[in-house]
UniProtKB/TrEMBL annotation:
PANTHER family: ALKANESULFONATE MONOOXYGENASE (PTHR42847), ALKANESULFONATE MONOOXYGENASE-RELATED (PTHR42847:SF4). Keywords: Flavoprotein, FMN, Monooxygenase, Oxidoreductase. This is Alkanesulfonate monooxygenase. Catalyzes the desulfonation of aliphatic sulfonates. It comes from the Bacteria. Its EC number is 1.14.14.5. The gene is ssuD. The keyword Oxidoreductase applies. GO terms for molecular function: alkanesulfonate monooxygenase activity. It comes from Chenggangzhangella methanolivorans. GO terms for biological process: alkanesulfonate catabolic process. Gene3D superfamilies: Luciferase-like domain (3.20.20.30).
Length: 376
């Protein structure tokens, strides 16, 4: 029997809505709404949530800390930003949040690919130099979280007598996740992290990247796990699902597409270039592989593809990624509150993912079934 996939969801700290690329039906990223999503996915059986990072997002560490107090089992994948802060300060943050959440912290290493945004954060290194700095950062960070007193002098960073007074719950440290498609990114992932993430490219392209990462890790005597970041549009029938996909981008203007593609073109991210190449900024032929739809990438930087279809078909497509090594899916859907319920109720039964905390009880005859509640 195929093992269940680990299912994560997304906390939309940049805002949410019914139509992407439009302010119609927009939902601001206020905390009560984000809390609603977190509590729902914790109850529905999602293992964790990803919180994005960037100047357009509410600050992920602060939001995750607040959401940890409102949830019971949910894990929080929070951005660790080499270059934006010092490794010692980041180590203290990670240890504190790991303790506050009772060992539910995961770290998503984000080196960054937007030169303008990086400049705003005081980072002016070129692509490969950023990865060199990240390697030094993670070396200090990992040693500190492991309980060492660290003296380190590298090309980009220095630290002397760096240590933690309060250790994390997880040992040797909260797991490091990472996504990046360049050669420098893959070498960093193989050397320093535990889970490698890919955006939702066609299966053969994801398989090729996984094999490159596996080989790089094997050269170091290491083994990594693999995850997929993708959107899901699941409905009872394929026709309903494709209608929902087309409706999601029905308010997108040509100007919005052009503006997003112009911003994406300025990025030195190899992963972003691969995403953009899937659709080329064009509305036609957005189904780039069976049930894999690139419509979101027209106006969304980063992960821009969705699996679209009925539950059986989407489950089959996810199993195809699982067959090449993926064991964790980080999914999302617009709007994120309602779509979390659709994914859990329609898709989870086909993936062997059980609902946590959902109590079963009898119903009044005719309301939700044909069996009447027992009466005394």
């Amino acid at each position: 029997m195929t093992a269940p996939l680990s299912m994560f969801w997304f906390i939309p700290t940049q805002g949410d809505g019914t139509y992407i690329g439009s302010d119609i039906g927009h939902r601001p990223a206020d905390f009560p709404y984000l809390e609603q999503i977190a509590i729902a996915v914790d109850r529905l059986g999602f293992e964790g949530v990803l919180l994005p990072t960037g100047k357009g997002c509410e600050e992920s560490w602060i939001v995750a800390t607040a959401l940890a107090a409102a949830t019971e089992r949910l894990k929080f994948l929070v951005a660790l930003r080499p270059g934006v802060t010092s490794p010692a300060f980041a180590a203290r943050q990670a240890a504190a949040l790991d303790r506050i959440s009772r060992g539910r912290l995961l770290l998503n290493v984000v080196v960054g690919g937007d030169a303008a945004e990086l400049a705003g954060d005081g980072v002016f290194l070129d692509h490969d130099a950023r990865y060199e700095q990240a390697a030094e950062f993670l070396t200090v960070w990992r040693r500190m979280l492991s309980g060492e007193k660290v003296d380190f002098e590298g090309e980009h960073l220095k630290a002397f007598g760096a240590e933690l007074a309060f250790p994390p719950v997880q040992t040797p440290h909260p797991p490091l996740w990472f996504g990046g498609s360049s050669d420098a990114a893959i070498e960093l992932a193989a050397d320093q992290t535990e889970v490698y993430l890919s955006w939702g490219e066609p299966v053969d392209q994801v398989a090729e990247k996984i094999e490159r990462v596996r080989a790089a890790a094997a050269r170091r005597g290491r083994r990594l796990k693999f995850g997929l970041r993708i959107h899901l549009i699941v409905r009872e029938t394929a026709a309903e699902a494709w209608s929902a996909a087309n409706r999601l981008i029905s308010k997108v203007s040509d100007d919005a597409i052009a503006a997003t593609q112009a911003m994406a073109a300025k990025s030195d991210s190899v992963g972003q270039a691969r995403m953009t190449a899937l659709h080329g900024g064009r509305r036609d032929n957005l189904e780039i592989a069976p049930n894999l739809w690139a419509g979101l990438g027209l106006v969304r930087k980063g992960a821009g593809t969705a699996l679209v279809g009925d539950p059986e078909t989407v489950a089959q497509r996810l199993r195809e990624y699982q067959a090449v090594g993926v064991d964790t899916i980080i999914a999302s859907g617009y709007p994120h509150l309602e779509e979390a319920f659709k994914v859990a109720e329609l898709l989870f039964p086909h993936l062997g993912v059980g609902e946590r905390g959902r109590q079963r009880h009898a119903t009044i005859g005719g309301e939700f079934g044909v069996r009447a509640a027992a009466t005394s």
